[in-house]
């Protein structure tokens, strides 16, 4: 399957793609409604049950490792150097001081990235690209635009697979792709040049396939797959609507703030700890491959 979709038998997979699109929009709106890091953290924790229900915990954790780099950078750099900071919270080596206001800003941005990233991962990994295209057409989206979404989800794994093939082929020709960073930069041309050529060839082939199947012909389009809004979707949408109304009330009417200095410091140390575990895991894997080789 040439997509990021992972087949599972779960409640999240059974939801209609339109429901999951509304879910992503709901998460994006919710993440921008709150300027309180504690509320952002509650929203993030509240999404973990959906990851469990989708039965994609391992894939989710692997996908979020990349975002942790941005989160660590944002929390650390903004926490120290953001000019809005005035109230010192704690000091680390070298006299670098984390300030309360800076940590609040950094925490909101970091949790927002994790929240939206979690929603995106759930959506992409539980939604079949063909189902997404069909759902968009039921919303009266033009067939060509729906196909653009479909091909976008499918082209990323194809390019990743071709890049791996090119790298292995170049290694077989004695190209050292595991050298130091400067040598790797020099080796980008023999890696990317064939990859670009392969990509253009595949796009050219795709255009022929589309013409052979009368893609540009007017009329009703049919599909082997079918999507339908079920009672589960209505329950899910109703729950999102109730939560959104509650969030609007809390955001505009109550103006509550649950953030404390201890929460900010704990969040910072938790982010550092998770990132440290990711780095140790990465180094251990590389060392194991080197020793085993």
UniProtKB/TrEMBL annotation:
The chain crosses the membrane at residues 21-48, 60-81, 102-125, 145-163, 234-252, 264-284. One of its GO terms (cellular component) is plasma membrane. It is found in: Membrane. Keywords: Cell membrane, Membrane, Transmembrane, Transmembrane helix. It holds the Pfam family CbiQ. The keyword Kinase does not apply. It is a multi-pass membrane protein. InterPro entries: ABC/ECF_trnsptr_transmembrane, ECF_transporter_component. This is Energy-coupling factor transporter transmembrane protein EcfT. It comes from Neobacillus thermocopriae. The lineage of its organism: Bacteria, Bacillati, Bacillota, Bacilli, Bacillales.
């Amino acid at each position: 399957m040439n997509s990021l979709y992972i087949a599972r038998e779960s409640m999240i997979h059974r939801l209609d793609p339109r429901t999951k699109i509304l879910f992503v929009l709901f998460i994006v709106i919710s993440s921008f409604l709150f300027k309180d890091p504690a509320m952002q953290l509650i929203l993030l924790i509240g999404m973990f049950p959906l990851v469990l229900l989708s039965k994609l915990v391992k894939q989710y954790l692997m996908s979020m490792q990349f975002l942790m780099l941005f989160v660590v950078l944002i929390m650390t750099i903004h926490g120290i150097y953001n000019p809005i900071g005035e109230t010192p919270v704690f000091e680390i080596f070298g006299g670098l001081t984390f300030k309360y206001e800076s940590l609040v800003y950094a925490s909101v941005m970091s949790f927002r990235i994790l929240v939206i990233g979690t929603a995106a991962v759930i959506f992409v990994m539980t939604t079949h690209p063909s189902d997404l295209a069909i759902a968009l057409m039921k919303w009266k989206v033009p067939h060509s635009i729906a196909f653009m979404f479909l091909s976008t989800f499918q082209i990323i794994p194809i390019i990743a697979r071709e890049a791996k093939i090119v790298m292995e082929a170049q290694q077989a020709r004695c190209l050292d792709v595991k050298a130091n960073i400067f040598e790797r930069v020099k080796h980008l041309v023999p890696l990317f040049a064939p990859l670009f050529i392969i990509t253009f060839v595949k796009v050219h082939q795709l255009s022929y396939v589309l013409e052979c199947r009368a893609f540009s012909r007017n009329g009703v389009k049919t599909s082997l797959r079918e999507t339908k809004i079920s009672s589960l979707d209505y329950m899910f949408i109703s729950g999102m609507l109730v939560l959104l109304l509650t969030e609007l009330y809390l955001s505009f009417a109550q103006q509550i703030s649950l953030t404390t200095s201890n929460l900010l410091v704990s969040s910072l140390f938790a982010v550092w700890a998770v990132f440290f575990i990711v780095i140790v895991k990465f180094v251990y894997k590389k060392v194991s491959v080197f020793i085993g080789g």
